[in-house]
Amino acid sequence: MTKDFELPSSMRAVIVDPPGGPDALQVVMRPVPKPAAGEVLIKVASAGINGADLSQREGKYNIPPGTPDILGLEVAGEIVALGDGVTGWNIGDPVCALLIGGGYADYCAAPAVQCLPVPKGLTIEQAGALPEVAMTVWSNVFEIGGLKAGERLLVHGGSSGIGTMAIQLARHLGARVIATAGSADKAKACVALGAERAINYKTEDFVEAARQWSGGAGVDVILDMVGGDYIQRGLECLAPGGRLVMLALKQGRKVEIDAGLIQGLNLSLTGSRLRPRPVAEKGRLVAAVRKAVWPLIERGDVRPVIDSTFPLDQVADGHRRMESGAHIGKVLLIS
Ligand SMILES: NC(=O)c1ccc[n+]([C@@H]2O[C@H](COP(=O)([O-])OP(=O)(O)OC[C@H]3O[C@@H](n4cnc5c(N)ncnc54)[C@H](OP(=O)(O)O)[C@@H]3O)[C@@H](O)[C@H]2O)c1
After folding, report:
1. Options 3.10.129.10, 3.30.360.10, 2.60.40.790, 3.90.180.10; which CATH number does 4-130+290-334 get?
2. DSSP letter string over 140-192?
3. pTM recorded for the entire structure
4. Which of the listed residues 160, 188, 206 should we mutate to test ligand 1's pocket, taking the one with most ligand atoms within 8 A of CB?
């Protein structure tokens, strides 16, 4: 079902041409997409900026096949058309959605199974800050990392979009959290979100701090978005049976580790990428997040942390804000 007669034929969209700094982002006119079978068309209210968008803009990102050239991994907005075979959603529904790309635009098509309702209590714009962080954290900390109530979690980059969600979710699901951050203000923000202890990694050694905080026991799960020597150092502060989950490897992917720690303490070294997963797997994850995470957001226990918003036409400034590293939480584009 569509409401084509109400839709414009063209829209604004953001592409990269050629790869480079923020000025490589071009706002161009494109046809409004038609939702394929199983997809909905969303009139975008807000789109999250993610670290991956910055790498993609620089031409340094391993883009999965089938990704559109329009940037953007998540949006919130209103459903304005339904592709064939879509059930469970109606035209007019406010939703947020996880995308493989295409979110920096006035309209985008999304697999219906990758949509979630805008949680009660949030504006449609705020909901654009949720899909990527909620899905990534649920998948990596709870499913892959297996974090349980009563266990200890070390979150690197605690003030990032991902970190702010990881701290809150872990805390509200009964885990104890320690986080790293690159300034005193960011460390303070981590504590305000529920971390028992925040380490300024520029002035303190996180291995020593995590050992002390845990009374020498070590932490059970580490969410790592740094890589390089953080992997060996992470192994050094895990408790027996601990799990280190890698999200990003900015400081290096070829590393030397003491495998004896893994063998001797039954540790797991693992990680994942969300973006290349098939639609069916993303749909499964979205359903799991709707069941486990959405009630916490609707109760007000967990909230999206939004640093700043930029109009779509000022997308380059949004990227500059992310690149400055001064942000705490998410940076959003508003259509
Ligand atoms: N694997 C996946 O599927 C997946 C999905 C989503 C995101 N990610 C990755 O997760 C990361 C966070 O994403 P985001 O969008 O929330 O980005 P973001 O807000 O830009 O976060 C990047 C974070 O990395 C932290 N960081 C950099 N160097 C550090 C160091 N030496 N020690 C501790 N922390 C350090 C920064 O902390 P300071 O600012 O305090 O220095 C910042 O909080 C990104 O690297 C992104 O690529 C991966």
Report:
1. 3.90.180.10
2. IIIIIS---TT-EEEESSTTBHHHHHHHHHHHHTT-EEEEEESSHHHHHHHHH
3. 0.97
4. 160
